[in-house]
Amino acid sequence: MTSSIPGGFLVALEGIDGAGKSTVARHLAAFCDAHDLPCVSSREPTDGPWGRLLRYSAIDGRLGLHEELGMFLKDRAEHVEQVIRPALHKGRVVVLDRYYFSTAAYQGARGASPEEILDQNEAFAPLADLVLILDMDPTESTGRIHGRGDRPDAFESLETLVEVRRIFLSIHRPNIVRIDASLAPEEVARHCVSAFSAALERKRSAWAH
């Protein structure tokens, strides 16, 4: 029998490309399954119309800053209304491979104001109960991208990732936990699951009292 969580629980996985977010997402989903917690896993950009256009642009050539930012906001608004908010309303755990912190970091690296982007998104997007920022040196992450047989896309140049990492490190919110993603994947996953479990228990305890 599954055990829902009043108000749900939203965890966002953030960090530069190649940091291991997808692997951690699978481990968190497995933890939820093992503990009979209803879980929804999703990602941004989504597979919706706006998200697909953003994914294509990463291969064919990035859009202008304002057009790209606007598309991310449209994709996220649709994601919030169709997936995130309904799942939270049903008391489910929502595991996101990227959320609006990535928008702040990647569009911030192009010249937008990261704080303005955060404020703009937090005006309509549910706040995460936990944000796990997987941090690592961009030279190592690009090595991972090449190592898995992928070619870096327009979001993944070393110069871009250096600035993106700097912005991620400059963001401060009480729900953020930074994880050393240079460790072995299983070790990274263990630290993330531990932080997730602790945050989940804090929310349950707060609700119980």
Task: Describe this entry's structure for a reader.
- This protein has 209 residues and is of the alpha/beta class.
- 56% of the residues lie in helices and 13% in strands.
- The protein has helices at 21-34, 49-60, 65-89, 100-108, 114-122, 138-147, 158-170, 185-208, and strands spanning 9-15, 39-43, 93-97, 130-135, 176-180.
- The protein has a five-stranded parallel β-sheet with strand order 2-3-1-4-5, with helices on both faces.
- The radius of gyration is 17 Å and the shape is globular.
- The protein starts with 8 loop residues before the first strand and ends with a helix.
- The model has no long low-confidence stretch (mean pLDDT 91).
Oligomer: single chain
How would you characterize the largest beta sheet? 5 strands, parallel
What is the beta-strand fraction?
5-15%
H and E string: EHEHHEHHEHHEH
Structural class: alpha/beta
**H/I helix tally:** 8
Topology, number of strands:
5
Enumerate the spans where pLDDT stays under 50 for 5 or more consecutive residues: none
